[in-house]
Amino acid sequence: MVKPDVRGAGAVIWRKKDRKTQVLIVHRPMWDDWSFPKGKAKKGESLHECCIREMREETGLDVVLGVPLGWQHYTIAGGRKKEVRYWLAEVAEKSNPAVKLRPKVGLASKKEIDDARWVTIKQAKKLLTHKGDRTILGHMKDLWSDDKHETVPLLLARHTRATKRSAWMEKGKRGREETRPLTKTGYERAESLVRVFSAYGVERIVSSPWRRCVESVTPYAKAAGLAVETHDELTEAAHAKKQKPVASLIRNWLRKELLPTVVCLHRPTLPTVMQTIEDYTPQVIMRQVPEKDPWLKTGEVIVVHVANRRGKAPTIVALERIRPVIE
């Protein structure tokens, strides 16, 4: 595929009202069309950040991202190629700690967006001007028809880059494995994770108690005003002795948790974690992630979108692999 000249992001913001599912569409007077809110990514901005910002600019709403809905590819002025990535999104609760740490964003002018309207899926299909938007709506409708549009995210984060083991534990320095800190780049990557966690509305932070894991999620914890819950079973040492406690922790979250959560992990624990995830994931979706070690690079995240449908086992609807942008 040809590399795009312009990249952007958009969302299908949805809600339930009067027992009906509604989506939000906007009117652009310059083009006299109805579309889903979207916009162009700024330099150094990830598509996740772009989507959050554009939703605020074009609708005045703070949202949290849900299941990815795919891409649109088309040609714009000057023959340039543009691609836009879409997600399902919901309006964030005012109490959600992820929202308060986002930068302030002004509203788009009336020349850009002069109307925003909540409509049913059937109404949206009639009003949307462009075929690409109707295709994205179709993806959302498929999820809705199968009751898989409402999900909770579990973010699996490998800790960011740490000081080399050999250097930290060198004779005379008395460095212990569990106290090995992040490098300068590791700290920068930890700061960049704040924007990823915020995009998905993370409200709970779980981590190995070892320093490099805790330091990887501390910037978000401080910014959001959340505590870091540490679990000894997530350490490399504990996992080397017994793998079942790690599998049980992940399995219990999948079955019972209702809060968007990040779990910060060590590389050696990832095979157990991914094997547990695979038990709830259709094979066609598992193909989107690596099949073997290292699973994730330092500082990378896999977002697990989990649908907990009444009377049914939890089902993983989508997986996303994210490498956060360092400013």
Automatic annotation (TrEMBL):
InterPro entries referenced in this protein's UniProt entry, alphabetically: His_Pase_superF_clade-1, His_PPase_superfam, Nudix_hydrolase, NUDIX_hydrolase-like_dom_sf, NUDIX_hydrolase_CS, NUDIX_hydrolase_dom, Nudix_hydrolase_domain
Family affiliation: Belongs to the Nudix hydrolase family.
User: A GO molecular function for this record?
Assistant: 8-oxo-7,8-dihydrodeoxyguanosine triphosphate pyrophosphatase activity
Listed A to Z, the keywords are: Hydrolase
Q: Quote the SUPFAM superfamilies the UniProt record gives.
A: Nudix, Phosphoglycerate mutase-like
Q: Which residues form the Nudix hydrolase domain?
A: 4-142
Name this polypeptide is given:
8-oxo-dGTP diphosphatase
Pfam families, per database record: His_Phos_1, NUDIX
EC numbers, comma separated: 3.6.1.55
